[in-house]
Structure to design on (274 residues):
């Protein structure tokens, strides 16, 4: 009696096996081209500055390094210790700078925004003041950093960078709006004072001079005293951790009060315009 081999038995009711789909020639060629295409070249920190300076005129190597110190950037390093930035790094940096410039967000908030998935496509250049931007991030607050004065700039460098008249800068020093620091016969200004000079130079086009700015200086002094009184015990603490938390709270309060002052000003100006 013949016995059917289990290896050769065919069930007539069994469904036909599906044909194996093989990639076409075009698909294979596309994959091959993608694999052969070189990865984008990483660039140095100097090249990053050159690539972004047109959109961000105040970009500098020290500023990029500071953002790295704040754990916002993490470029890879060569064996010699040099930083190399990929295209993703540059895109992330552009997003950070736009959030600072257009939405006035503190670095701590920017770090949270990036961790939450905020990307360059969500931050359109020049989005400050748009309803869409306001809806995305809620209340905008000015970035305030009280722990680091940043780089120092000589008077001539400030004049060239801001376009301000040297006499105007000296007038601001005379009226106590800025102080600077004299070293070796040259007066140097930190980044905050440089931006004050830039802002005042814009006001000067409308005839506003140093003596007219006393009201701003007086207001700033009073706000500073108020915030200091709120956090004085913690700021004087010998506990490094408590003092660090107090400084972060000081920066946050400064951001809130700056935004509040901005809103109050807009409210009053709107009354004038209507």
């Amino acid at each position: 009696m013949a016995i059917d081999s289990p290896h050769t038995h065919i069930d007539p009711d069994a469904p036909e096996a599906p044909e194996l789909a093989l990639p076409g020639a075009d698909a294979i060629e596309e994959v091959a081209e993608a694999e052969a295409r070189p990865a984008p070249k990483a660039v140095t920190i100097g090249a990053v500055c050159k690539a972004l300076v047109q959109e961000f005129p105040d970009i500098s190597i020290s500023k990029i390094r500071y953002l790295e110190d704040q754990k916002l950037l993490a470029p890879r390093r060569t064996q010699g210790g040099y930083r190399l930035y990929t295209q993703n790094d540059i895109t992330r940096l552009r997003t950070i700078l736009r959030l600072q410039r257009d939405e006035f967000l503190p670095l701590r908030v920017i770090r949270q925004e990036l961790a939450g998935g905020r990307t360059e496509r969500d931050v359109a250049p020049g989005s400050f003041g748009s309803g869409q931007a306001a809806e995305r991030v809620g209340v905008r607050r000015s970035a305030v950093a009280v722990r680091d004065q940043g780089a120092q700039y000589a008077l001539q460098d400030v004049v060239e960078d801001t376009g301000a008249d040297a006499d105007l800068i000296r007038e601001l020093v005379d009226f106590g709006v800025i102080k600077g620091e004299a070293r070796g016969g040259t007066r140097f200004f930190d980044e905050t004072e440089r931006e004050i000079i830039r802002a005042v130079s814009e006001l000067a086009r409308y005839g506003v001079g140093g003596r007219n700015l006393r009201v701003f200086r007086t207001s700033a002094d009073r706000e500073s005293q108020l915030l200091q009184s709120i956090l004085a015990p913690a700021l004087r603490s010998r506990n490094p951790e408590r003092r660090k938390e107090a400084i972060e709270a000081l920066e946050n309060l400064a951001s809130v009060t700056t935004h509040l002052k901005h809103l109050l000003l807009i409210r009053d100006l709107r009354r004038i315009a209507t």
